[in-house]
Automatic annotation (TrEMBL):
This is RNA methyltransferase. The lineage of its organism: Bacteria, Pseudomonadati, Bacteroidota, Cytophagia, Cytophagales. S-adenosyl-L-methionine binds at residues 132, 159, 176. The keyword Lipoprotein does not apply. InterPro entries: Methyltr_RsmF_N, MeTrfase_RsmB-F_NOP2_cat, MeTrfase_RsmB-F_NOP2_dom, Nol1_Nop2_Fmu_2, RCMT, SAM-dependent_MTases_sf.
């Protein structure tokens, strides 16, 4: 692996950079594979795996670990996340009171590794808006958050500037910015070919533009967390200086006492070097907003009127745990379960954003019963009264491939297929066959080698 000389030269005076160790690690050591366990679907499968020292639920796995044929992965019991970026949990814990109900925006959420981490830490009455500007990513983001199972999440597919419509609304704004990607050279060698000084400059401009667009959505006293997977000062410390000057923000300066491992503190921000930590290159830091911001008006109080509520409630009661604690709304024939505290903000977001997911999609009503959606099967809110069929590993893989399989003594009707107790999806058991309702677009393709 040949690291660009111009990158190496530009890093000479940066805190923590050690050229020989850096080059040696890139040439001789593989990128570590890490996963983070879902605290709401706690599996003990990884109990003996090495822990990521700065993450309560982070574990390292062997290089050859193949999640595709692990039903627990499809059940949302864990997700992959680059180990260094799990440090986000530490930054949150030290800069925000996570026992409070918070409105959180993950602006550049990608496929959702940070969003599932946020969803794991927030209170049930908090609201997480996960956004990505790219449609394909926003769709995968919605799938991954569906697997995680929480209700207090909205997925949008919008440009950062659209968030000016939610002025002063968020307590926490996470910008894991698109960057030149030098921190991921070992993980994705394509980033080496694309790397250039010009590319760093371009990304720094884009980072400033994203921050400028989103800054107004943060409330006074709110916290913005900024991170990149780049080593370049222009995308990191220089952006920190710029944020302080441009917005008068308070940099929440890290000190050596806050350190949990071999991460480096450079001008009050954290830097991760792969020769010093078991993870990839990463930069993360936090700010507090000092200036006041006009807050978007969100109606509160009265629930939104719905004349069919009583009938719907009795149907949903058979499918959803503690239905009286939740509310729902219908769009066309589809019904979505949401937290009653989020009813008005959901309505506002529906009107102003491209929504990809909201709450838990329960399904469609048809002749007084529900045709359940996959999201309900994956959610943490499914009623315990629902019929379940526990599958063996082999049966689970067949189910996830949408192949035919037979079951002895299964109760007729809708059943949740489970593996080690975790929901995988729906099947409808008929007298002479099983209809597999696992989503076609998510089915496992290919063969186990
Ligand atoms: C570093 S990745 C995010 C990774 C993600 N946070 C995770 O945990 O997996 C940056 C994301 O920013 C998005 N992005 C690219 N250009 C953007 C722009 N101009 N505004 C907002 N987001 C952008 C990309 O689609 C990409 O998913």
């Amino acid at each position: 692996m040949k690291i660009p000389q111009s990158l190496i030269s530009s890093l000479q005076n940066i805190k923590g950079f050690n050229e020989n160790a850096f080059v040696d690690t890139h040439e001789n050591e593989a990128s570590p594979i890490a996963v983070r366990i879902n605290p709401f679907k706690k599996t003990d499968t990884f109990n003996h795996a090495e822990s990521v020292i700065w993450s309560e639920y982070g574990k390292y796995l062997p290089d050859n670990y193949l999640a595709t044929f692990d039903p627990l992965f499809h059940a949302g019991a864990y997700c992959f996340q680059e180990a260094s970026s799990m440090y986000l949990a530490q930054i949150l814990k030290s800069s925000v009171d996570l026992s409070q109900d918070l409105n959180v925006l993950d602006l550049c959420a990608g496929t959702g590794a940070n969003s599932t981490l946020l969803a794991s830490l927030l209170t049930p009455d908090s609201l997480l808006v996960s956004n990505d500007v790219l449609k394909v990513r926003a769709n995968v983001l919605a799938e991954n958050l569906t697997k995680w199972g929480t209700m207090n999440t909205i997925v949008t597919n919008n440009d950062p500037r659209d968030f000016t419509r939610l002025s002063g609304f968020f307590d926490v704004l996470l910008i894991d910015a698109p960057c030149s990607g030098s921190g991921l050279f070992r993980k994705d060698p394509n980033t080496i070919r694309e790397w250039s000084v010009g590319n760093v400059t371009q990304h720094a401009l884009r980072q400033k533009s994203i921050i400028t667009d989103a800054w107004g959505s943060l409330k006074q006293g709110g916290v913005m967390i900024y991170s990149t997977s780049s080593y370049s000062k222009a995308e990191n410390e220089d952006i920190v200086d710029w944020i302080e000057k441009q917005f008068g923000a308070q940099h929440l300066v890290a000190s050596n006492e806050d350190k949990l491992g071999n991460e480096v503190i450079s001008e009050g921000s954290y830097r991760f070097y792969p020769d010093q930590v078991k993870g990839e290159g990463f930069f993360i830091t936090a700010f507090q907003k000092r200036n006041s911001e006009k807050e978007v008006f969100i109606r509160s109080g009265k629930p939104i009127k719905n004349n069919n509520r009583r009938t719907e409630r009795e149907i949903f009661r058979n499918w959803v745990k503690n239905i009286d604690d939740h509310t729902w709304f219908g769009k066309n024939d589809d019904f979505f379960l949401i937290n009653p505290l989020h009813e008005h903000i959901v309505q506002l977001i529906q009107l102003n954003f491209n929504l990809r997911k909201v709450g838990v999609s329960m399904g469609k009503l048809s002749s007084k019963d529900l045709i359940p959606e996959h999201e309900l099967a994956m959610s943490l809110f499914l009623s315990e009264k629902i019929n379940k069929v526990e599958l063996s590993q082999q049966e689970a893989i067949k189910y996830l491939k949408r192949e035919e399989f037979a079951l002895e003594q299964a109760v007729k009707g809708w059943s949740l297929m489970t593996f080690e107790g975790f929901g995988l999806g729906w099947a409808k058991i008929l007298p002479n066959r099983i209809n597999n309702y696992y989503p076609k677009e998510q089915r496992i393709l290919g063969k186990e080698s």
